[in-house]
Amino acid sequence: MRKFTAHNIRLDDGSFTRKEKGIDMSQHPVMLICKRVIEEHYPNQTYIGRRIVDIGCLEGGYTVELARMGLDAVGIEVRQSNFDNCIYVKSKVDLSNLTFVHDDAWNIEKYGRFDIVFCCGLLYHMENPKRYLNILSKICDELLVIDTHFSVVETKEKFNLSDLEIHEGLKGRFFQEYSDPNKTQNENAKWAAWENHRSFWPLYNDLMDAISDVGFSKVYEVESPTRGIHNQRATIIALKD
Asked: Which InterPro entries did the record assign (predicted)?
């Protein structure tokens, strides 16, 4: 068994990748929210066969559960150790509609268009989040699900963020991913950005406006346990006409 650091995935033989975590990925709060939103947007299982991408998929746990729903699921992961875990999981589940690719999230346009885009725990690792939202808008035909941190106006924050600044036309704060800007592509820093030494967290309203500005006609937050735990984290749904 390979060592997993994050995702507790149920394999077809009944074993789990991180059994000590208790609940498996099918019961993860963000997965349950995503499943509910997809089922509401595509009633009567009309989501089956639609294309979805899980960007920065880590060890593939969400991607597997999305494939088990019947979606044509693609997981993109840049870190080799995480990708190796994804490939291991794929070998242990019988899902012909499950694909993993080893690539940087910024190269997502190479993989065509998707009905649904799932972006969990990635946007707050981007130095230029609005530029990335523009890319997501280009490849997303209908539904975007984002789970991300954001900044607040108050200075007393849980995270070590910069003073308020304007970046990409958005108000927000910078978060330091790496202390040395010349050392960023760290294979072992699984909870840090891949190639930028700092990331930008827009204020909540600026983030919502940015998602709308790039081409989504309806943008709203759904109730999520991550909001209560982190306060500065939200699960956001965006729809195209």
From this structure: Methyltranfer_dom, SAM-dependent_MTases_sf
